[in-house]
Amino acid sequence: MNDFRLYTPTQIVFGRGAEEQAGQLIRSFGGTRVLVHYGGRSARDSGLLDRVLRCLDGAGLPHAELGGAVPNPRLSKVREGIRLCREEGVDFLLAVGGGSVIDSCKAIGYGVPREGDVWELFEGTARPAACLPIGCVLTLAAAGSEMSDSCVITNEEGWKKRGVNSDLCRLRFAALNPELTYTLPPYQTACGCTDILYHTMERYFSGPEESEPTDSMAEGLMRAVLRAAPRALEDPRDYEARACIMWAGSLSHNGLTGCGRGGNGRIGDWASHQLEHELSGMFDVAHGAGLAALWGSWARYVMDAAPERFARFARNVMGTAPGGDSREEALAGIAALENFLRSIGMPVNIRELGVELDEENIRQLAWKCSFEGKRTIGSIKILDREDMEEIYRRAK
Ligand code: NZQ
Ligand code: ZN
Q1: At residue 200, what are phi and psi to the nearest 5 degrees?
Q2: Residue 194 has pLDDT above 70, yes or no
Q3: How many whole angstroms separate alpha carbon 197 and alpha carbon 193?
Q4: Alpha carbon distances (Å) from 27 to 33, 58, 102, 136
Q5: What pTM value is reported for the model?
Q6: Residue 80 burial (10 A CB sphere; 0-12, 13-18, 19+)
Q7: Which own/partner contact pairs does 159-164 have at CB distance under 8 Å and 24+ positions apart?
Q8: Cβ–Cβ contacts within 10 Å for residue 14, how many?
Q9: Which end of the chain is more exposed for a tag (fewer CB within 10 A), N or C?
Q10: CB count in 10 Å sphere of residue 345
Q11: How confident is the model at residue 267, as a pLDDT?
Q12: Cα of 71 from ligand 1 centre, angstroms
């Protein structure tokens, strides 16, 4: 087992009506003027936004509002939020929405106390030094941003999607009410479940280190999501299925499923995520669907580096019958996961994602993903620009 550090300071308030505690929670963390940030229509249409604003009024908290965070959240909206927070003297950010709204809040939180341009943090030319405190009312179980140290923003200039990781942006609290996810369209539910699975898988398919408690938790979490996803799709108001997905979403990306495991300098593999971020940055597709479209190609490309690991995944997560050598078991597990993805309406290649890639697209995607040929990605197998091109090509 590797040495590790687990820092997961976010207070979770889980269950029906959790959002009603937002005002009191903000007060308990010292907030006095709040920016309520949300997305397009869903929070307003469902009446959630009005309920949250009333709750802040009830707690005596003045607030400004900023809607319009879009999926693959944009830098221009972050800049608008930074200006608004400075004008209004905001000292606490409340995200009402999914991963895009939370990430937009995190970037605003980094930007307000900063003198330089916030994008420098995403370019990696500067490190975050401070962040406004943030809480959330989660409406979509997927990205795990409510407990993660990560923030992913798309710069419309050049359609670059970049992430920055730091404990400074970890949320003070997350109000998780599974009922708020009843209104999700089936496609978003499926994308969310896919992303949740892959947050655990990125850590599971990493270095050779043993960490049996972590592996067992990871396998249990993945099995739970595999069981709950079809239930939530069949009956969107199945509370237990929604609750399972929501809690699994947070646990899958708060660091727990990486404890003691390895990676190439950081915990986890993350190649699939990095390859996907270029896809959703360039073609504005849903992140979970992009992962589904790429993963099989990545898995078949790298599996010979760790066939035993893939075989264990096949047996313990996908429940495929043992038989043949590790390689055959590994391939059966990959195919079983693809069948599951198809069954919940996810694409298993890029054409099914609705994108027709040509050779020039492939070259550009790999160029961006490799930071213009300057970085490699992955840990189970280190991938350079040519490997990236080949994975995109095989995923077509
Ligand atoms: O904008 P509205 O109208 O609210 O609609 C949203 C949006 O169109 C809708 N939605 C959300 N809650 C709903 C709902 N519709 C009906 N009922 C509800 N209760 O769902 C759509 C997608 O929302 P979005 O927030 O974009 O989805 P998600 O949570 O999957 O977030 C995706 C973003 O997070 C990033 C992704 O790359 C992507 O940009 N990620 C962030 C991570 C992190 N910070 O830790 C890790 C992830 O790996 C990921 O990269
Ligand atoms: Zn993800």
Answers
A1: -75, -40
A2: yes
A3: 6
A4: 10, 11, 19, 14
A5: 0.97
A6: middle
A7: 159/281, 159/282, 160/122, 160/281, 160/368, 161/72, 161/277, 161/278, 161/280, 161/281, 162/122, 162/123, 162/124, 162/277, 163/122, 163/277, 164/110, 164/121, 164/122, 164/124, 164/128
A8: 14
A9: N
A10: 14
A11: 85
A12: 6
How far is Cα 14 from Cα 9, in angstroms, rounded to an integer?
15
DSSP string, 288-319: HHHHHHHHHHHHHHHGGG-HHHHHHHIIIII-
Cα of 147 vs centre of ligand 2, distance in Å, is 13
What's the 291 CA to ligand 2 centre distance in angstroms? 8
| Residue with the two structure tokens 């408690």 | 213
The reported pLDDT for the residue numbered 209 is: 75
Place of tokens 């996961």: 337
Instruction: Give me the pLDDT at residue 365, please.
Output: 97
* Mean pLDDT value of segment 309-331: 94
**Ligand 1 probe mutation, 8, 42, 160, most atoms within 8 A of CB:** 42
